[in-house]
Amino acid sequence: MDQTWTAPSKLLAWIGPTSSPPRTLHSTNEPRSDSAMSVHDSHAPNRAALTRQHLLKRGDTSAPEGVALLCGLALLPVIAALLATLTGPAEPAAGKQAPSGRAAAPLGHGTATADTTALSTSTSRQWTPVTNATVTLTKPGVYEVTQQVRGQFMTARNQFTHARIISRLFNTTTGTPVPESNLLVVTSTNRPPGRSRDYGTTATGRVFIEIDEPTTIRLEAMQAWDTGTVTKSWIITDPNGLTKLLYKELA
Known about the structure:
There is one protein chain. The protein is α+β, with helices and mostly antiparallel strands. The protein is 18% helix and 38% strand. The strands form 3 sheets. Strands 3, 4, 6, 10, 12 and 13 form a 6-stranded antiparallel beta sheet that branches. Strands 5, 7, 8, 9 and 11 form a 5-stranded antiparallel beta sheet that branches. A hairpin with a 4-residue loop joins strand 7 and strand 8 (176-177). The chain is elongated.
């Protein structure tokens, strides 16, 4: 008479789910005690391996991969701090400013074109404001101010004459000339008497002005002579050439 033995449910639960149902084992006719009974199943080692794999696997990440991922996340702050120490703070590229909270205000600039203005020929070295050659620097800062001046004068007949036109910038806000702004526009040399002579040219000069309040600058010019007589003198603007006062804010 054959005897059958079924694996206990606790043992199957420990082994875990398998791809095949529990097997029924058949014993021989020889009587044997429960303590001496042994069960041989060729699938037991495979089930043990599958059980270990099932315990180690969670989702799509294996245990070694999970440990590596956790270690990497823990080390991220350390790696970031090390990289920041090695590289230092980021610097803006050459010629570029680092971004700020608001856009920088545009730098000011402007031009004033003068009208033709006659200079005194009765009194030497008398400063005359050039008509419409005035600019206003509206805010504190450093400015480049340029004067472009076209001048012309005539001397008398039968006289030796040494004469010149000089221009300058004048600060009407403070009531003082702008230092080092004098510009020699045109000059003559001693000439033998005989006929009238005309002298004319255009000269350009610039100065840098630093202000701490709105400031108005104007162009002035004078006719000067040491000997002889000057009959006519002008600062000129016409299609052949302009007299202008220009400014550009630098900082």
